[in-house]
Amino acid sequence: MSIDTGPVRLQGTMPYLFMLPLMIGGLAENFIPTKLFPTIISIVIGTFFCLLSIPIIILALREFYKAKIIFDARKASTTLITTSIYKITRHPVYLSLILFYIGLSFLINSIWMLVMLVPAIYFIQKFSVEREEKLLEVKYGEEFQIYKASVRRWI
Fold this sequence. Notes:
Blueprint: H1 14-31, H2 39-66, H3 92-108, H4 111-115, H5 117-150
Helix pairs in contact: 1-5, 2-3, 3-5
């Protein structure tokens, strides 16, 4: 059984689609400087979010390693991982990227970069998460449905 994932397969370009809003926010910041908070507060908040992203990505990649899967966003998963961090969120890698993006926005102290997080999340949701989940539903059927019902998409 096959599933239509749309006219263009964008999953391999997901890191670029995610980075584009970050770069646009940085460019806007260069021309029209903004400030989220006083510098020290912004650094503390930014550091917190960046550090928070690290254990999430480590736990996610560790599960790939344990399942003997090479992490490659361009390819379909060969195993449904439902352990460790995947008991809390169905998409820990993307969640980690989002948390890191938030942290970077605060470290740079840029309202523009933080505002551009909205389209970045949209790109992830629309062009990666939704398509991946459709493919997983087809590939793993009821097993994925049970997992999906018991674990939130994000947090």
